[in-house]
Write a structure and sequence with these properties.
Arc Repressor Mutant, subunit A; mainly alpha; 6 helices; 2 domains; three-stranded antiparallel sheet
Length: 158
């Protein structure tokens, strides 16, 4: 339905789909965050640990880590400072670029990742994956892939 302003308002079905997506996104992230609390981690902490654990030599340039986690450089810097205090990561200077810094996973950070990852995966299974059939998961992935691709291109990261 289009109004005289040219706005294409959502149909009832589109509105229900959109609101269901918002509900699931918020509720799922809230639950996953709660399930990380016993380990003293937030979802942001965990996402950083995952990115570092999957990177070569368990290190990433701070600018690349900010982009990967969709955080501003300033916000990431504060986050890394908190994680440094907890002994999970450390910063290292970049020899090839005197202004650049790396975030590096510490031994304690790696041990924490190995401890927490099985619990996090179980949480993802319990609250998401196991509630859907294999066909539903495949359909969901196919349905959301164009949205993710569109948003990555908008960010300049195909």
């Amino acid at each position: 339905m289009e109004t005289e302003t040219g706005t294409r308002w959502l149909t009832d079905d589109e509105q229900r789909a959109w609101r269901t997506h918002l509900d699931v996104s918020r509720l799922l992230m809230h639950q996953l965050e709660r399930d990380l609390q016993p380990f003293g981690l937030t979802m942001n902490d965990y996402e950083i640990l995952v990115n570092l654990s999957e990177s070569e030599e368990h290190r990433m340039r701070m600018s690349d880590l900010a982009a990967a986690t969709l955080q501003s450089k300033s916000r990431l810097s504060h986050q890394i400072t908190r994680m440094e205090r907890a002994g999970l990561v450390r910063r290292e200077n970049c020899d090839s670029d005197k202004r650049g810094l790396f975030a590096v996973l510490t031994e304690h950070g790696w041990a924490t990742m190995r401890e927490v990852a099985p619990h996090h995966v179980e949480s993802v299974r319990r609250h998401f994956v196991d509630l859907l059939s294999a066909d539903d998961l495949a359909r969901l992935r196919r349905s959301l892939a164009p949205v993710a691709d569109h948003l990555r291109v908008r960010r300049g990261r195909p």
